[in-house]
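User: As part of a screening pipeline, I want to sanity-check one entry by hand. Below is the sequence and the SMILES for guanosine-5'-triphosphate. Please return the complex as structure tokens so I can compare it with the automated output.
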Amino acid sequence: MSSTWFWIVVVAVVVLVAVLVSGLLIARRRRISLDKAREVEAKPKRGSYTASGGIALAPGGEAESVEDPVHPVEDRPEVDGQPAVGDDAAVPRDSGQRTVRDVKLPEPAVDTVDTVAEEIDEIDPATGRLERLRGRLSKSRSVFGQSLLGLLGAGDLDEDSWQEVEDTLLVADLGAATTDQIVQRLRDELSRKAVRSSAEARAVLHEVLTAALSTDGHRAVRALPHQVDGQKQPAVVLVAGVNGTGKTTTTGKLARVLVAQGSTVVLGAADTFRAAAADQLQTWGERVGATVVRGKEGADPAAVAFDAVKRGIEDGVDAVLVDTAGRLHTKTGLMDELGKVKRVVEKQAKVDEVLLVLDATTGQNGLAQARVFAEVVDVTGIVLTKLDGTAKGGIVFQVQRELGVPVKLVGLGEGPDDLAPFEPGAFVDALLG
Ligand SMILES: Nc1nc2c(ncn2[C@@H]2O[C@H](COP(=O)(O)OP(=O)(O)OP(=O)(O)O)[C@@H](O)[C@H]2O)c(=O)[nH]1
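Assistant: Here is the complex for your manual check:
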């Protein structure tokens, strides 16, 4: 009896083990086949573009537009073709798919305008520009020079006066953190040096403000050519920013600085949303004899940028400056497009400099913009424009501190040569008057 039970138990155990093993095998095989299917799905199609790796896989600028079409100007809800709120949602996701027959083949995207300047502009030398243009900072100077020096030069300061110093710095858009740091240093230095005269107070203020503008980053604009595998490669500079900050103007002004220093330049008008922007850039190009590569209105900006760099390499120029379309930093689609412009360009040449153009008159909003741009493209330098039109020159301090990116250039007017290199000492000097 007991041996019968023994054999029943043995048979049951064997059956149980067999069932478990076969179950495991089936489950494993299923898992493998599922993974394989995913692997196949994940493999990028040839010539397509996958965002996951961050690297564009298509071989040329035009190929990109097949899978990632341009924002057609006529689909935009606004009247003048510029990006606006609701832009990304212009074509609802559930709208009818276009068939192959509906799709109009694009015309060649790019025109190149070889400008032979009949009369090339006389260009102001770039050296000493900040000094020459210091008068343009008069609005900010009234805050720093008159208000601050008035307070600090008056001798021993009581707490009310220090509060006024703090308020003055905040009104000039230095931001809370920078203001705190500067006030603390001023307090320390003024008492340590037992400052008595207004001249001494000016010297201390100069020193403290200049130190607050120091940065580890280099301020030189990387716009000179370099060698790649023994071949001359132009420097590639991308100019980005929101609408109306002064990107096109800055690109034109920078081209003039480079030409004045003996460089050859190709300008890429990758602002294809606004036809006037390309015309504007072409005018800048004509005035200094630079070739302009531009696209048809609504063309893929990445394709135009790509062709501009290609042309720059073929012509052996020293620098290619690419003016991109103004984009609202709140619009994900447009920001992605900027990332794409950079990635497409980098298929043939490294982007050496990404200049973010910020309008100094927009204050805190400019900072918010800068943070978003810095996430999409590696911003390597800031151009702060319209400093001539604001009393908030203190934004320079805040921009650098918050972004950790050096201010490289400042715009001090609408004139063609009103762009100056940013030098902390000379800038503070101009602010203090
Ligand atoms: N006062 C002053 N005006 C400037 C400065 N820089 C640019 N501007 C003016 O700002 C306006 C806009 O400049 P654009 O260069 O067209 O700006 P943008 O960023 O290319 O504009 P979008 O292409 O629309 O995005 C123009 O009227 C320029 O003359 C500056 O440093 N000071």
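Points to compare against the pipeline: The chain has 14 helices and eleven strands. Residues 241, 243-249, 271, 274, 277, 326, 385-386, 388-389, 411-414, 418 surround guanosine-5'-triphosphate (CB under 6 Å).
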